[in-house]
Amino acid sequence: MMGLSTAFSLTNLLMVIGGCLIGTFIGMLPGLGPMSIIAIMIPVAITIGDPSAALILLAGVYYGAVFGGSTSSILINAPGVASTVATSFDGYPMARQGKAGKALTIAAISSFCGGTIGAILLMAFAPALATVALLFHSSEYFALMVVGLSAIAAFAGTGNVAKAVLMTLLGLIMATIGEGAQFSMPRFTMGLMDLQSGFSFITLAMAMFALPEALYLVLDPSRSASESGGGEIKDLRITREEAKAIAPVIGRQSIQGFLIGVLPGAGATIASFLGYAVERNIATKEEQEMFGKGSAKGIAAPESANNAACTGSFVPLLTLGIPGSGTTAILLGALIALNVTPGPRLMIDEPQIFWAVIISMYLGNLVLLILNLPLIPYIAKILAVPRNYLIPFILFFTLMGSYIGQNNSTELLILVGFGICATVLRFADYPLAPLLIGFILGTMLEDNFSRAMQLYDGPGFILERPMTLGLLVIAVILVVLPSYRARRARARAEGVADGD
Q1: Residue 461 and residue 337: Cα distance in Å, rounded?
Q2: Residue 13: which residues within 8 A CB-CB, separation 6 or more?
Q3: pLDDT tens digits, one per residue of 275-287
Q4: Are 419 and 432 in contact (CB under 8 A)?
Q5: How many Å apart are CA 269 and CA 311, to the nearest integer?
Q6: What is the pTM of this model?
Q7: Domain residue spans in the chain?
Q8: Nearest Cα residue to 30 out of 168, 275, 211, 269
């Protein structure tokens, strides 16, 4: 009740609305993710004085940015936030079919449901889940990263799985460039100081998706025009059949995403990738063929998972004082600056702060839905812009997002180089998503593997930790199951042909 009265005060209601507005519009701009805007907003939050209001504002900015990040992914294929990369796999193809409004509606509803379910689970199970999170050590995180990588078959589409594996390995190789967490020596930098910290995710994401799209529109204008639906914005509402199809997906991925978000170091990115992969693997054969071509389930799964994971990341932050991602690490710094000590005693010593933040998440998700749904027809009209104006628009935001991410002009050269390579790979029918997955998970995989090897003096941790072994078995199943299902389908088809 203390949290309820705190959250519904006029000041805190304005903080929720303001945070959601700022986060949504910043999230729509490629390259300016929640980390950047929260870092900028910390001085503003400190001047507020009231820790509850300050934290509610920053939390609103956080999930508002993730909520809004899907817009650029769907409309111009430029995911500036890692957690919305998976949304572009089906969101952008749907937008190219003239259904941008429908794609944005599905994303908005899925985000709202994922965030709301996450808030309910956070309120009910936060203390218990904090103890579960402590059971995960380096070896379990290593196994969790392997599970994420094993899901690459889901991103191969109807193409060759070998190509997806090859692109994943390339992503893992690229993740080793620069200084690792376990080593202070630069690796594979070729003596270039600009590569000391490795490649930027934002630059790589833009090079893999946004820049090839702009070049694709230039190189093949007739084909791109035929896919766009002639710039006509239609089908703003989802049908009853589509609602029935995505409802169980939203329910499953909200719970799965929340549980992944609870684990320190996992976060919304892994939740969105795993959510997409799981839904594709359990779908029927007809539905699997639609993934990557504009599937409603392919949008609902990552959107509900990443928003639930954002809410889940507050469990280790508030109850243990452990940041689960870069964004929550910045929030931890803000808490300390506000003289609030996160940890097991926060619920006892300052319950009004703990519960006010959780209750504000309900309000925030409702505010985000109310703000975004009426704007969808207008936001979707960006695709009605003529191609000769849209291409420079995409290029401008791509270059700006890459430069702002590192404030380094060398990033522009890296962007152009990788963008040209990605365009060639796209025309050669190589899936680009596995490369980005390998790059994102590669650093965490290496760090946790090195730490586990040091703690257990070798690979014996696989057998010593039952949870690690269980996760690795799941990874093997995820690799074997798609090929087994394909082989069975082939055998069944051959049997029918023989019978004929």
Answers
A1: 39
A2: 7, 363
A3: 888 888 788 878 8
A4: no
A5: 13
A6: 0.73
A7: 2-497
A8: 211
Residues 6+ away with beta carbon under 8 Å from 324: 261, 262, 263, 264, 265, 266, 267, 312, 313, 316, 317
Q: CB within 8 A of 499, min separation 6: which ones?
A: none
* 75-99 per-position pLDDT tens digit: 877 776 777 888 888 888 888 887 8
Which residue type sits at 33? G
Burial 443-475 (b: 16+ CB within 10 A, else e): bbbbbbbbbbbeebeeeebeeebeebeebbeeb
* Cα–Cα distance for residue pair 497/385, rounded to 1 Å: 50
Q: Which of 170, 67, 46, 175 is nearest to 112 (CA)?
A: 67
With residue 439 as reference, give the H or E element that holds it. helix 433-456
184: tokens are 């202070």
Cα atoms in the Cβ-side hemisphere of radius 13 Å centred on 3: 20
Tell the residue number behind the tokens 């702002």, with chain if given: 404
What is the rounded CA–CA span in Å between residue 465 and residue 124?
Answer: 29
| Residue 355 · residue 66 · CB < 8 Å | no
